[in-house]
Amino acid sequence: MTWTRKDLLTISELSVEEIELILTTAESLKEVGGRDIKKVPALRGKTVVNLFFEPSTRTRTSFELAAKRLSADVINFSPSTSSVVKGETLIDTARNIESMQADIIVLRHSSPGAADHLARFVHSSVINAGDGWHEHPTQALLDVFTIKEKKKQIKGLTIVIVGDVAHSRVARSNIAALTKLGAEVRVVAPPTMLPLFLESLGVKVFYQFEKALDGADVVMMLRLQRERLGRALLPSTREYAKLFCLNSERLKLAKPEAIVMHPGPLNRGVEISPTVADSSAAVILDQVTNGVSVRMALMYLLSGAT
Amino acid sequence: MSSSFQERQLMDAQEVSRALSRISHEILERNKGSQDLALIGIRTGGVYLGQRLVTRLQQIEQREIPFGELDITLYRDDLSIRKDQPEIRKTLIPFNISDLKVVLVDDVLFTGRTIRAALDGLMDLGRPAEIQLAVLVDRGHRQLPIRANYVGKSIPTAREENVQVFFEEVGQVDRVSIITGSHDQ
Question: Could you read off the pLDDT of B158-173 as tens digits, one per residue?
Fold first, then answer.
């Protein structure tokens, strides 16, 4: 199949074939990261602009590294040092960037739909690097890539997503990707963190961590977004840790060869115990490595369609 | 398959096999044996041919000869002008090519652009002592100053003709043909 999209905005809009094309392209590109000279000339002369309206180190660095490994030029743009503080709108900012001949704009923004909105106004390809609580498609793609690498296929796996699903773009994108690819997805969290009608996304809802873990192949932890605790979702962090921290005892309830994932940054001792985070079951650092390959794959595919 | 499809055969299975046997002997002759020798096939046709050459070389020399598979997509010179991106396949070279005598293997030598991309690709992976080129068919029409060290058969062709190599490995009878008309595989 050939890639025809100008942008990557959500997982929901992708077909299974498109997801698989991204994954196989990423698989081939992973080899570049293992070389002494980690650079190929595929995107020579292309310009990638990282436009991040929300703080991010991991994702921005990953995109930057991906672009550089493909020989593209990268510009990092953050609102605190830009004319956004002077009142410029998102579209005006983006049009200015586009006038500098940017081929790909990587956007992170706090408003859901920001990437979609931007993509309608610019000719450059837009990659959604997280839009509010909506989606974080590249995170889901790297998660799927990592699961596939460890478990060979997604179909038939039981995958548990644990934590604040309501406010998690990572969870939303992962649910879309994993259900499309035929996994059984379970979500578990305190009721305040699970949106109503969640079942309509094709997932099984649990409120008790132990029950959800039974027979799991993959345990995907979400970060407890402590900056949002002011919203009175929880009585306390301690209580959350008591009921939802993935520790060694709880992990035993999953399948013996189960893997543990986390999008980072980790709150050790809150949603994941240090023992589990540092155990051989944890594939957290593989996720980071694979993130670069997946983003390289996307930039490669998108740069043809522009 | 469409009806306007026509095939004119240039080499049959036996000719392909004999050419590969001759090339394996030429490789050993030129390199005075198989010391520090490695073969790398260019995807996809070059991989099948390279594997067959390695089998022959190993039979003659009674020793293991390193073999790798190279995908040149990321090094193509038309990526920035194409609308659709060609599929990237895996490069699998499980050994360090530095200081080895690398024989690059491809099925058809035409404009030379694939080989230019392959040379750049190899240079990014290390510093071979030497790179040689083996091809099953040289059909002329070079656009770059590139020449093969080992040639199965030189076949004069018209520029717009389509030379195809068919492989047993993908369920075909081994042969080299000129294909005319549109053909849907």
Answer: 998 999 999 999 999 9
* Distance, C-alpha A202 to centroid of its chain: 19
Q: Which residues of A touch B74 (CB under 8 A)?
A: 32, 40-42, 70, 300
Q: How far apart are the first and last CA of chain A?
A: 17
Distances (CA, A) of B2 to B5, B10, B165, B179, B184: 6, 21, 19, 12, 6
A100 DSSP 8-state letter: T
- Prediction ipTM score: 0.85
Active-site residue identified among A2, A4, A81, A86: A86
- The two tokens of residue A24 are 């196989």
Measured distance CA(A238)–CA(A100) in Å, rounded: 50
Instruction: Chain A: give the shortest CA distance to residue B155, in Å.
Output: 32
The span from the CA of B163 to the CA of B141, in Å, is 12
- Chain-chain contact of B124 with A2 (C-beta, under 8 angstroms): no
Q: State how far the Cα of A241 lies from the Cα of A263, in Å rounded to an integer.
A: 18
Task: Give CA–CA dist B139/A158, Å, rounded.
Answer: 54
* Among chain A residues, CA nearest to B94: A31
Given A25, A47, A59, A138, which residue is catalytic?
Answer: A59
